Amino acid sequence: MTVGSAAAPASDLRAREAALHERLRSLTSLVVAYSGGVDSAYLALAATRVLGPRALCVTADSASYPARHRRMAEQVATQFAFQHEFIHTGELARPEYRANDTDRCYYCKHELYTDLTGLARTRGFEAVADGNNADDRGDYRPGRRAAREFGVISPLDEAGLTKADIRELSREAGLPCWDEPASACLSSRVPYHSEVTEAKLQAIERAEDIVRSLGFRVVRVRHHGDVARLELAREEMPRLIEPGVSEMIDRELRALGFRYVAVDLKGYRLGSLNEGLTLKVV
Questions:
Q1: Are 1 and 164 in contact, with CB atoms under 8 Å apart?
Q2: From start to end of 71-177, where are the E strands?
Q3: pLDDT tens-digit series, residues 199-217
Q4: Residues of the chain with pLDDT > 90: what percent?
Q5: What number of CA atoms fall less than 13 Å from residue 168's CA on the CB side?
């Protein structure tokens, strides 16, 4: 299993799984905000098994959504027979989102939940659910404020399921994304107060694809203007000194328009762009 805390003991895990199923059975129908990551994929699977065609899994496609995630979402949805649709969201057209203040995620989720709750209302679905889990409670996540405003529910969190629990249940269910490294939208690679643009997002996605093509699993390319700052899993960092690896990364990322390619010696850590900021958990 990937780095993180251990899943709950078997008896607790089964109790939490049962609590999730009971919560889903309490609903007549549900729209799942499905990104293709492990949390939303497991929720989509559970909802499909409990509610059948009364569960609709919806993936929001936009410039900030990586193509590899789109492919993964489609693959899992097909393999496990989800009722699945794509919608297009236009968060990049919102000045508040492009401004990239510390509450950028709020405007992204506001855009998403405006669309999903509208879809649910028009088509007669009782509720909209996200993939937040019990480990997310203490994080700085302004998107949760938007979820509360729109009445979006978090069944995984309600059941007390942690990320490790979800990975274990996903592994048991055969979900191919069970050990996929945690990820976030491409805009999370742009430092706060630096404008989010489609050109930056395209450069970030192409740069990460290049690094990932060399076998690195955990990759973030932070966009600092003419500097690309690489964050890699610490255990993968020694590979950078293998013959030709650093040279290829430097050459290919410079070809994307970066003047300098730097490696963050602390390695990848969740929310590194929050470091040094005073943020209020909402």
A1: yes
A2: 84-88, 127-129
A3: 999 999 999 999 999 999 9
A4: 86
A5: 17
Distance (Å, rounded) from C-alpha 76 to C-alpha 69?
11
Helix 67-79, helix 38-51: angle, nearest 10: 30
Q: Which two tokens stand for residue 162?
A: 């942690």
Q: Please name the residues in contact with 67: beta carbons below 8 A apart, sequence gap of 6 or more.
A: 205
Instruction: Report residue 85 as tokens.
Output: 């649709």
| Chain centre distance of CA 139 | 14
pTM of the model: 0.91
Question: What does the pLDDT average to over 46-62?
Answer: 98
CB–CB of 88/123 below 8 Å? Answer: no
For residue 69, the surrounding DSSP H or E stretch is helix 67-79
Cα-flanking dihedrals φ and ψ of residue 229, to 5°?
Answer: -100, 115
Task: Summarize pLDDT for 100-128 with one digit per residue, the tens.
Answer: 999 999 999 999 999 999 999 999 999 99
Alpha-carbon distances, residue 192 vs 9, 14, 187, 201, 259 (angstroms) = 39, 41, 10, 14, 21
